[in-house]
Structure formats: structure tokens, C-alpha cells
Design goal:
The protein is mainly alpha-helical. The chain contains eleven helices and two strands; from the N terminus they run αααββαααααααα. A hairpin with a 3-residue loop joins strand 1 and strand 2. Helix 6 runs antiparallel to helix 7.
């Protein structure tokens, strides 16, 4: 096992314990010596893990405060590790609704700008992402990966540096939405033409149509998530690669 793997494994273990509430808000995590013994790692590994957790906003360290767990609203919810740890402890309806609200705030504005500013290269990349989604629906494959590429591509096509950075930060959260919403049978079949409508509006340089199309898409995903939650089925694990579609041919979809 490499040092990187030891660090990653220890970070996952302690991070998940914090997110799960084993160490509640304001509580001190055990001293280095205790953590070393409990986790079977060196002080160097524990120190690096503590630095990583502090950078993610989960804990604060200092000579007078020790190492204490922060309120969850101070955690970096754009961090992929934090999102995965939260999913392992059980994704809540509140968390998923907040995620959809975030999408409704950011993506419509981003798509309007993309319709005004997208370059030929941006369009080409979006077409490739859409083609990947379409192929996954028809022949099987990793639909979520192409879906994420599509939505991040839309934000990159805004050519606004802050939104481009936001697209990177949103990655883990968007993937969460896509993994959960695509858990419903045939939801990808229904969402594919909605993605096409967004892309066509961007190509047509129609900000209003692009915004309307992305809202239809987001609201459809919200309904899919609500139905998945209502079914009380076990939610897909975000720690694992997204499940691949088995594939099905839909001649009516061929464009």
C-alpha cells in the first residue's frame, strides 16, 4: 500500500465518522496518539489527514481550541469527498432538494450566457457529450459520465471564469443528482430529448429558449429524485462508479 493510499483510506475513515456525527459539532477529535493507535497509522499520516479535513472545513485546529468539529454549514459542500461521505451516511431529502435548488439558480443563468457566447469548439464538445449519452441509452454504457460532461460543458461555454470554476466545484454535486435521478427505469430515455432541446437552443443562439429548456430538464430530474425517494429503495452509492445502462434501441430517438 502506498503512502497516498494510507492517507486516502485514513482520510475517508475519519471524515466519514465526522460527517456521520460520531464526533458532533464542537466536539474534539481524539489526540494524535489515540488516532494513530486506533487507525494503525503514523503521526505523519494523522497530521496530514487533519490538515485535509481542516481544508475541507470539517474541523478547526489551534493551540487554544484543539481540534474541534465545525458546524455542517461551514463544511465545503462542493468537495467531492464531503459529498461522498455524506452519501454513505445516508442522503437526506433536504440535501437533495437543496442540490436541485442550487441547480435552478446556477444552470439557467449559465445556459443563457452559453447561448450567447459558445464557440464552435464548445458546441462540438457538447455534441460529443450528447452523442455519448445517446449511445449509452441505445447501446449501453456510462450515461452519467457523459451527462456530467454535458452540463459542465454548458457552464464552460459561458466563458465566465467564475462560472467555469463553479463547474469544477459543482462536479460532485451534479454527479449526485444524475446518479440518483437515473436510478429510475427509463428516465434516461425521457431526459435525452430534453438535453437535445437545450443544445439546439444554444446552437440557435436563443438564450430564452435555452433557459426554458434547462428548467424543464432540471424540474424533470427533481421529479425523478422525488419518486426515487418515495419508493424507499436503497439509493445508489456515490463512492462507486455510476451503474452502466444495459442499453436499448429507440429508433424514434435517432436524430
Amino acid at each position: 500500500m502506498t503512502i497516498k493510499n494510507v492517507h486516502g483510506t485514513t482520510l475517508d475513515l475519519l471524515g466519514e465518522q465526522i460527517v456521520a456525527g460520531q464526533y458532533p459539532t464542537g466536539a474534539s477529535i481524539p489526540p494524535e496518539a489515540v488516532l494513530c493507535e486506533e487507525m494503525g497509522v503514523s503521526r505523519t499520516v494523522i497530521r496530514e489527514v487533519v490538515k485535509s479535513l481542516a481544508a475541507k472545513g470539517l474541523i478547526v485546529t489551534g493551540p487554544k481550541v484543539g481540534t474541534r468539529v465545525l458546524e455542517s454549514d461551514q463544511w465545503n459542500w462542493f468537495d467531492a469527498d464531503v459529498v461522498v461521505w455524506h452519501s454513505r451516511t445516508g442522503l437526506t431529502r433536504e440535501f437533495l432538494l437543496e442540490l436541485q435548488e442550487l441547480r435552478r439558480v446556477i444552470e439557467p443563468a449559465g445556459v443563457r450566457l452559453a447561448a450567447e457566447r459558445a464557440t464552435e469548439q464548445d458546441i462540438a464538445e457538447l455534441e460529443q457529450a450528447y452523442a455519448g449519452m445517446k449511445d449509452a441509452v441505445e447501446n449501453g454504457g456510462d450515461y452519467v459520465r457523459h451527462d456530467l460532461r454535458f452540463h459542465q460543458g454548458l457552464l464552460r461555454a459561458c466563458h465566465n471564469r467564475m462560472l467555469v470554476q463553479m463547474s469544477k466545484a459543482l462536479g460532485a454535486l451534479l454527479r449526485t443528482s444524475f446518479v440518483i435521478s437515473t436510478a429510475r427505469p427509463d428516465c434516461t430515455v425521457k431526459s435525452l430529448p430534453l438535453h437535445r432541446a437545450v443544445l439546439d437552443a444554444v446552437i440557435a443562439r436563443s438564450p430564452a429558449k435555452a433557459e426554458k429548456a434547462i428548467l424543464v430538464l432540471i424540474d424533470g430530474a427533481s421529479k425523478d429524485i422525488e419518486q426515487v425517494l418515495a419508493s424507499r429503495r436503497k439509493l445508489p452509492s456515490l463512492a462507486m462508479p455510476a451503474a452502466h445502462l444495459k442499453g436499448r434501441r429507440h429508433a424514434a430517438m435517432v436524430r
